[in-house]
Amino acid sequence: MSGEVKTFFDNWLLKFGVFPEFKMRNKIGGAFTTGAAASNGKELTMLSILEAMLVNQMIVIGGGGAFGASAITGPDSPGIDDKELTAARDLGKRIAEVASMIKSGTK
Questions:
Q1: E strand or H helix at 7, and its extent?
Q2: Cα(55)–Cα(25) distance, integer angstroms
Q3: What is the Cα–Cα distance from 92 to 107, expressed in whole angstroms?
Q4: Beta bridge partners of 32
Q5: Are strands 28-29 and 59-60 parallel, antiparallel or unpaired?
Q6: Which of 39, 85, 103, 104 has the most CB atoms less than 10 A away?
Q7: What is the pTM of this model?
Q8: CA 76 to chain CA centroid, nearest Å
Q9: 52 class by beta-carbon count within 10 Å (0-12 exposed, 13-18 middle, 19+ buried)
Q10: How far does CA 78 lie from the centroid of its chain?
Q11: Average pLDDT over every residue of 50-58
């Protein structure tokens, strides 16, 4: 995962002293990643983001792909295509739906 995301999770657990309180517990999250090529570690990045969420006792939502949504954004890529954008939007929509269900207490 990016250095900024890793630092956030590390600080949240250790530096800010909130680990024992699990202040991110029951918050909902999903993994979105980009990489320079089709096989450029995006799946491993998503797994490490999901792992950090699970350590914080978050509710992890999947969708978009096997572990989350990803896109190829390297120098040979024409940019995020419609399929990648749709997968990211679908994951975001699913996260919002689950958050709404949990907040309202519906199934």
A1: helix 3-10
A2: 9
A3: 19
A4: 69
A5: parallel
A6: 85
A7: 0.81
A8: 25
A9: buried
A10: 24
A11: 89
* Cα separation, 40 vs 26, whole angstroms: 31
Neighbouring residues of 45: CB distance < 8 A, sequence distance ≥ 6? 1, 31, 33, 35
pLDDT band at 49 (very low <50, low <70, confident <90, very high): very high
Q: Which residues contact residue 62 at a Cβ distance below 8 angstroms, ignoring those fewer than 6 apart? A: 30, 68, 91
Q: What are phi and psi of 28, to 5 degrees?
A: -105, 135
Give the chain's mean pLDDT: 87
Q: Is 3-104 in CATH node 3.30.470.10?
A: no
Domain edges within the chain: 3-104
